[in-house]
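ok so i was messing around last nite and threw this chain in just to see what happens. nothing serious, just curious
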Amino acid sequence: MIIENKEIEGKEIKWILRCPTKEDAYELSKLRVQIDGETENLDRELGEALLTPEGFEKIIYDDLMRERNIFLVAEVEGRIVGFSRCVGNELSRFRHKAEFGICIMKKYWGYGIGKVLLENIIMWTDTVGIEKISLNVVQTNTKAIQLYKRFGFVEEGILLNDRIHKDGNYYNTVVMGRLSKNR
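result:
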């Protein structure tokens, strides 16, 4: 699925919200490695589950071809600084659902990019008839949890001791979901 490019005037920065093209694959591959190394809020550590540029090209192509998938990037001054991907479920019993995630370079946290990505994911899911979107978030990422709650997400459960961070401690994962207003 493709959306039109949107110029966003955010908190102290201007940026572009758009869908990626195959020319973005190399930059996205590098960006994902960088973001994985900047935070423990995501599932991967630096260098794990690498996605090559060819892997990103395939994802970009597949998402463009599928009605129930969308891939968005945030571009500041010609550089991609974050992205969000929402993937609809293809199984008949779960076609009403989709899962998504948001990744933003640490340097760009606090500028409202995550909020805009989330707003656009929600608008898109409501438009294409996805009735429920869900995500997992580490329990210590309280800013993200607060943002999701402001947009109608509820905590559906806690996965206890679900992950181990570099400090050797276990952390819980919060499962969150949002039902469409059109439901």
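not much to say yet. The chain has a mean pLDDT of 92.
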